[in-house]
Amino acid sequence: MQFLIVLNFIFCTLFIRHIVCWNECMKPILFPIILVTLFAVVYNLLPYLGANETQIAALFAISPFAVIWMVYRILKDGIPSEKTWDEHFYEDHPYKRNGSEEVES
Predict the structure, then answer these.
(1) What are the residues whose beta carbons fall under 8 Å from the beta carbon of 26, sequence distance 6 or more?
(2) Per residue in 28-83, pLDDT tens?
């Protein structure tokens, strides 16, 4: 069980580090992502920390609202990409489309 806690901590640390290293256009949405991620980590660790079922159920009931709030903030405050699907496959990779990827129907 302690192995799972350590593994979860390492994963979350790497995930948060990846978020913090994002570029400037991600700064407005950084707070909601980190807060909801920490909420999920706490929720996952509560059974191992000896929390009772009422506390776990309360966090479970709140979790959809936290995710909806995060999505709302990302959609409201996020900066849309300048790249289009017609030119690029991925936002974080400089690969450009060459037209041969089109699927004929």
Answers:
(1) 19, 78
(2) 788 888 899 899 988 999 998 899 999 999 999 999 999 999 999 988 887 777 77
The Cα 53–Cα 59 span in angstroms is 10
Q: How far apart are CA 98 and CA 34, in angstroms?
A: 36
Residue 8 CA: distances (Å) to CA of 15, 18, 44, 92: 10, 15, 9, 25
- Listed by start position, the domains of the chain span 2-77
Q: What are phi and psi of 96, to 5 degrees?
A: -105, 150
Q: Which among 66, 78, 9, 60 is positioned nearest to 35, based on CA atoms?
A: 66
Residue 25, strand partner residues: none
pTM: 0.61
